[in-house]
Design a protein that fits this description.
Layout: E1 2-3, E2 9-10, H1 15-21, H2 41-58, E3 74-77, E4 80-83, E5 87-89, H3 91-98, H4 106-116, H5 126-134, H6 147-161, E6 176-181, E7 185-192, E8 195-203, H7 206-209, H8 213-227, H9 229-232, E9 236-241, H10 244-251, H11 259-267, E10 272-277, H12 284-291, H13 301-315, H14 320-332
Parallel strand pairs: 6-9, 9-10
Antiparallel strand pairs: 1-2, 3-4, 4-5, 6-7, 7-8
Helix pairs in contact: 3-6, 4-13, 5-6, 8-11
């Protein structure tokens, strides 16, 4: 509970805390106002549905029949399409992006980049493709739309029409994190049974570029694990690297490692994983990501924030009146 400037009290509730205290047979308190269940077969579907409806009736919870879908092999959910094959991008969202006109200002370009930001986990080389566009939204860079930007813009739209399908994450399956480091970039991909769950890449800072190769490879592990923390924390998983000396470094006592590697290994202490060597030719995806990194170092963190804000404003549309109200109320709130 916190006290507001006017003397009123604000009560903050975290459903995740309640979920750890109150045990239920099936459903947790949702953090969002939608419920979805992935079930195998008609019998399981009907059994779980009956349980849900009985609980809803017991607690006087009503569902809008028009908004309910049953026995579907494909359903739209939170901006994505969930299918029996895996997770796809909602084509309605893609249509809006593909039909956008060429940006004429930095603000319009930010809006475009914000709209495509949510597909980053689907496309391995998205960061490489968007690099020329991101150059135009840096500080003190004039907005000059050249042939390079025009080609990039059209290529990006083509990539968005048929993006790859990502597999569902399964806590019961072995998790593999494949990582790699190039001269100036880091790449990582989460795999289960050889199928991609999510991709990630970033550029190194000027300081990191000066690291030795073994330090860069260790940094790639640290980046990949922290990037996919929500998939890895609390689980036993495997990490694949194409830098064989790193495997022996991780088998040594911590106090026998160089200082910088010690620091990175210390940061990895909360995670439980097995480090394995795999030849570079077999780490195709991670290797490609590290060489096609997004230029998102600390130097352009403001750019990342602006792009993220643009994505949120585009995804969650509100009226001008409501936006003005939010601005005014936020300004009054000392906590914010």
């Amino acid at each position: 509970m916190t006290t507001k400037p006017g003397g009123a009290m604000r009560i903050c509730l975290d459903p995740q805390y309640l979920n750890t205290q109150i045990k239920r047979e099936q459903m947790m308190i949702p953090n969002i106002d939608e419920i979805i269940a992935k079930l195998k077969g008609k019998k399981e579907h009907d059994r779980i549905l009956e349980q849900v409806l009985k609980k809803a009736q017991e607690y006087n919870i009503k569902f809008n029949r028009k908004k309910c879908n049953f026995k579907k092999k494909e359903v739209k959910y939170l901006g994505h399409v969930l299918t029996t094959e895996g997770i796809k991008i909602d084509q309605n969202r893609i249509k809006a992006i593909v039909e956008m006109k060429e940006p004429k200002t930095q603000k319009e370009l930010l809006r475009f980049l914000g709209m495509i930001n949510y597909v980053a986990r689907f496309i391995p080389n998205l960061s490489e493709v968007t690099a020329p566009l991101r150059q135009l939204i840096k500080k003190d860079v004039p907005f000059l739309w050249s042939k390079e930007q025009d080609k990039t813009y059209k290529t990006l739209k083509k990539l968005l029409i048929e993006p790859p399908v990502l597999s569902y994450f399964d806590m019961n399956k072995q998790i593999v994190l494949s990582v790699d480091a190039s001269k100036a970039g880091l790449g990582a991909v989460i795999l289960q049974e050889g199928k991609p769950i999510a991709y990630g890449s970033r550029a190194m800072t000027e300081t990191e570029i000066q690291y030795s190769q073994i330090e860069k490879e260790c940094l790639a592990i640290l980046y990949g694990i922290t990037k996919f923390h929500q998939y890895l924390y609390g689980s036993q998983f495997k990490v694949e690297t194409d830098h064989k000396p790193l495997v022996s470094i991780f088998s040594k006592p911590l106090n026998r490692c160089p200082a910088r590697l010690q620091k990175m290994r210390m940061a990895l202490q909360p995670y439980s994983f097995e480090l394995n060597y795999k030849p570079g030719k077999e780490l195709v995806v991670a290797d490609h990501l590290s060489r096609s990194h997004l230029v998102d170092t600390e130097e352009n963190s403001d750019l990342k924030v602006e792009t993220h804000v643009a994505m949120i404003m585009e995804s969650y549309r509100i009226s001008d009146e409501k936006l003005e109200e939010l601005v005014l109320e936020t300004a009054k709130d000392e906590e914010l």
